[in-house]
Design goal:
Helix content is about 50%, strand content about 20%. The chain has about 625 residues and is of the alpha+beta class.
Length: about 625
C-alpha cells in the first residue's frame, strides 16, 4: 500500500472503533450522541466533505461527493447518526479497494529506460579512452564496445569481430555475427569480442531513442477511462437532488405540513445515496482482478477487464511469446560411423568455451567434463574449430564445411543446422530450433473458440516466421519487422477493429514490444521471460507465460462484467423502487437503510463471487 492508502485504512479502522463506542451511548443523551458521532463522521469523511465544498465553490456541484454529503447531512438531520457515519465508512472502503487494485499494479513505463546505455567509451586520437554520456557522442567519433556492453548509438564496426544480441530490438533469438563494416544498432548487446566502431548518428537520432519516443507517443494515445460512478453521478446526482426539492416544495404548496415533507425529502436523499454502487462496482472489478491473480494473471485496472471481455483480435510477438525464446535440439543425425552420442560430444566439446545460445543448447545434452579441448578458435559467422581429444573438430554452418573441404550431406529440414566434422570426416548434423511453447497451439485454438482471431508479428526471417505461424494455425503473419514496423501494423489493425467496435490486444515479451503494448487496447506481457519494459508497459501480465491464460483472462473478464451489470441493475432497481415508495409517503428510514446499506451488502456478496472464478468455471 502507498502512504495515502495506509492513511485511509487507518482512518477507516479508527472510524469503525469510534462508531462502535458511539452506538453504546444511550439515546436519551441526544445532544451528546449527536456530537459523539461527529468524531467518526469527520474522521472518515473529511476528504469527501472537503471535495464537495470545494466543488460547490468552483461551480462543479453535482458529483458523488456532493450526494454523499447531502445524504449524510440529511441522515444526521433526521437523527440517524449511525447511518450517516456508516454510509461514509462503506464509501471509503470501496474507494480503498479501487485505489489498491489499480495503483498497486499500475506503474509508469520508466523501466523502458533500462535499454538506454548509461555511458559510452570514446576513443581519442592518442589512443586514450574516456567514459562519457552517449548524448555527448557525435558522428565520426570512434567508440570501444566491450563484451557484455550495450551499444550506445547507431554505428559501424571499424575493427574487431563479435556476436551481437539483437533480441531487444528484433525479437530474433539467434545472435548476429558482425565484423568490419557491419552496422550496429543502439540498444543491442555485444556478447563476445571487443569492437571498435565509428558513430554515424547522434544519440537523439539512434534506434534506442526512437523506441523510447514511440513508447511515449503510444502511451499518450491511450484513452483515459473515466470512473463509472463519476459518469453516473454527473446525471444521477442533480436528478435526485431536484426530485428531493420537488418532494418537499410541491406537496407543501398543495397540502402544507412542511416538516413532514422535509422528512420525506431527506429520506429520499438517504435512499438515493449511491453507496451500493460506489462500493459494488469497483469491488466487482477488484474481485475479478483478484480471481485473475489467483490464476496467475495480473490485470492492471478495471478498464482492462472490460476490454478483455470484448476482445476480438490478439496480435502475438513470436520469439519468447509463441516460442520459448531459447534454442533446443530438435534432431540429431549422425553419419559415417559416428553415433548420436559421439556427435553431440564432439560438438559440445568444441563449443566448450563458447557462450553462444546454440552452443549452450548443445552443451546441455552432452557430458564434456572429461574432454580435452585445445586451440579453440571462433570463426565469426561460420563456426568453431578446436582440437578435441587430439581430433580436429569443426562445428558450424555449410559455408564452414565447404571452407574445410568436408564432404557433407546437405540437410533441408526445418531449423538451424549445425554441421560437425572430425579430422575432415563428416560426423553429422545437429538441428536446433526456437521451439514452440508447450500448449501454444491449443491455447490459440481456445482463443478462436472464444471468437477471437490471432495475428503474428516477428522480426524473424519470413521462412521461419511463416513455418511457425502454419504450425500454430495462424493465418495472418508479418515477418522481418523492426519495432517501428510493428507499431505501424498494430496501429492499422487496431484502427480497423475500432471501426468495427472491436477490441485488439497485443501479446509480447521484449523491450522492442513495449511501444506496441502501449498502443494496443490491451497489452499482454509474459511475466517470466518478458523484459521489465514490456511488463511495465503492458496492461495484463501472464505470470507463468502460459498462453492458455489469455482465453482464461477473457473468461474471467466476461464473468466479472456480468457480475458488475447484475450489481448495477439490482442496486438501481431497489433504489428506484424505494424512491417511489418514499415519494408516495410509504417509506421510512429503515426501508431507506435497506435500500442503501442492505443493497450494498448484497451487491458486495455478489461481487466477491468473482474471486472464485477458475479455469474450469
Amino acid at each position: 500500500m502507498t502512504k495515502k492508502q495506509k492513511r485511509l485504512l487507518y482512518r477507516i479502522i479508527i472510524s469503525l472503533l469510534l462508531f462502535v463506542i458511539c452506538i453504546f451511548i444511550p439515546e436519551k443523551y441526544a445532544l451528546i450522541r449527536a456530537l459523539a458521532f461527529l468524531a467518526p463522521y469527520i474522521a472518515v469523511g473529511y476528504d469527501v466533505i472537503k471535495k464537495a465544498v470545494n466543488n460547490i465553490f468552483s461551480g462543479q456541484i453535482f458529483d458523488e461527493n456532493f450526494l454523499m454529503l447531502a445524504a449524510t447531512v440529511g441522515a444526521y438531520a433526521l437523527g440517524e447518526y449511525s447511518e450517516a457515519v456508516m454510509v461514509l465508512i462503506l464509501y471509503q472502503i470501496g474507494e480503498l479497494f479501487q485505489s489498491c487494485a489499480v495503483s498497486k499494479t499500475r506503474k509508469s513505463i520508466t523501466a523502458l529506460m533500462d535499454i538506454r546505455p548509461d555511458s559510452a567509451n570514446k576513443v581519442y586520437e592518442d589512443g586514450s579512452i574516456n567514459v562519457i554520456s552517449p548524448e555527448e557522442l557525435a558522428p565520426g567519433d570512434i567508440i570501444l564496445i566491450k563484451s557484455g556492453e550495450k551499444i550506445p548509438v547507431d554505428c559501424v564496426v571499424t575493427k574487431g569481430e563479435s556476436y551481437i544480441d539483437t533480441t531487444a530490438l528484433t525479437g530474433e533469438a539467434q545472435p548476429v555475427a558482425v565484423k568490419e563494416d557491419s552496422i550496429l544498432t543502439s540498444g543491442c548487446v555485444n556478447i563476445s569480442g571487443t569492437l571498435y566502431a565509428r558513430v554515424n548518428k547522434p544519440f537523439s537520432e539512434s534506434t534506442v531513442s526512437k523506441i523510447l519516443e514511440l513508447t511515449e507517443k503510444s502511451a499518450e494515445k491511450k484513452s483515459k477511462s473515466e470512473n463509472f460512478i463519476t459518469k453516473f453521478a454527473k446525471y444521477y446526482t442533480p436528478a435526485v437532488c431536484a426530485l428531493a426539492v420537488f418532494i418537499v416544495l410541491v406537496p407543501t404548496a398543495l397540502y402544507g405540513d412542511f416538516a413532514s415533507h422535509v422528512k420525506s425529502g431527506l429520506i429520499f436523499l438517504v435512499v438515493s445515496c449511491p453507496c451500493a454502487l460506489v462500493i459494488s462496482v469497483p469491488l466487482s472489478f477488484f474481485c475479478g482482478m483478484g480471481g485473475a491473480s489467483k490464476n496467475g494473471i495480473l490485470i492492471k485496472g478495471a478498464v482492462y477487464i472490460e476490454a478483455l471481455s470484448k476482445l476480438k483480435t490478439v496480435i502475438f510477438d513470436k520469439t519468447g511469446t509463441l516460442t520459448k525464446g531459447k534454442f533446443e535440439i530438435s534432431e540429431v543425425k549422425s553419419a559415417n560411423g559416428f553415433d548420436n552420442e559421439q556427435l553431440l560430444y564432439l560438438a559440445a566439446a568444441a563449443e566448450k568455451y563458447s557462450d553462444h545460445p546454440i552452443a549452450l543448447a548443445i552443451k546441455e545434452k552432452a557430458d564434456i567434463s572429461d574432454s580435452i579441448t585445445e586451440k579453440a578458435e571462433q570463426i565469426v559467422g561460420k563456426g568453431v574449430r578446436a582440437l578435441v581429444d587430439n581430433k580436429k573438430v569443426c562445428v558450424g554452418n555449410k559455408a564452414f564445411m565447404k571452407d574445410e573441404n568436408v564432404d557433407f550431406e546437405d540437410d533441408f529440414s526445418d531449423g538451424t543446422h549445425v554441421y560437425v566434422s572430425a579430422d575432415g570426416v563428416y560426423a553429422g548434423v545437429i538441428i536446433v530450433k526456437d521451439m514452440i511453447k508447450d500448449g501454444a497451439k491449443e491455447a490459440l485454438q481456445t482463443l478462436r473458440n472464444y471468437g477471437a482471431e490471432a495475428v503474428m508479428l516477428t522480426g524473424d526471417k519470413k521462412s521461419v516466421g511463416e513455418k511457425t505461424a502454419k504450425a500454430l494455425g495462424i493465418e495472418k503473419a508479418y515477418c522481418e519487422l523492426l519495432p517501428s514496423d510493428k507499431v505501424e501494423i498494430a496501429e492499422k489493425i487496431i484502427a480497423e477493429n475500432k471501426g468495427k467496435n472491436k477490441v485488439t490486444a497485443f501479446a509480447g515479451d521484449g523491450i522492442n514490444d513495449a511501444p506496441v503494448l502501449s498502443v494496443s487496447d490491451v497489452g499482454i506481457a509474459m511475466g517470466v521471460v518478458g523484459s521489465d519494459a514490456a511488463i511495465e508497459a503492458a496492461n495484463v501480465v501472464l505470470m507463468d507465460d502460459n498462453l492458455s491464460k489469455i482465453p482464461l483472462a477473457m473468461k474471467i473478464s466476461s464473468k466479472t462484467m456480468r457480475i458488475v451489470k447484475q450489481n448495477v441493475v439490482f442496486t438501481l432497481t431497489v433504489k428506484i423502487a424505494v424512491m417511489i415508495l418514499s415519494v408516495m409517503g410509504y417509506a421510512n428510514m429503515w426501508l431507506a437503510i435497506f435500500a442503501d446499506v442492505g443493497a450494498a451488502v448484497i451487491a458486495i456478496l455478489n461481487a466477491v463471487r468473482a474471486f472464485g472464478i477458475k479455469k474450469t468455471d
